[in-house]
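Practice set, problem 2.
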Amino acid sequence: MAKAKKAETKEKKELTYEDYSKAVLLTGFVAAVKNELAKGENISAVRFVPILDGYHIFFNKDIKECKIAVEKRKLLAGYKVRTLEDGFKKVTCSLKSKDDYEKVIAKVFGYKREKAKKKK
């Protein structure tokens, strides 16, 4: 009989504040997109696919196949959000903080927003 090897303990990596903040930002944005998709009409076949350092969200709107790709930016902080319809790029924007949720969702789903007044 072969001897059973003892399981070696792996080193535990500590979670940094920066990693935690990025995870909260990503999950919050995905939850906001989920709420928008639930409100939408003619939306079907919704799939959320986690990837390394991001998320892909697939859905059908009317007869178009749509994809929202949320991927970590390599050089700068935050995430890059891209929208594709039938394989063609439609919108690209960046997500850096929770304050950007509303702006990015409005761009991704094509909502009209009032422009903020500039302070003089």
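Problem 2, part (b): a different protein.
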Amino acid sequence: MQKKFYVSGGPDGSAPGFDRFSRINELNMLISQGWRIMEFVREDDKEFFIIEKTV
């Protein structure tokens, strides 16, 4: 399973409900639960990681 994890500039123009520092803490928690970072993408004003977890 893959998904986009927004650090800034989510679909509505902002990362969902957190500042950038909090988003990175959330990403670290997902990594500790077995998610892997596949790619970092920067498009216009959006920054996100493609993360993946095998089920």
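Answer key, part (b): The CA atoms of residues 5 and 43 lie 13 Å apart. The longest helix spans residues 20-32.
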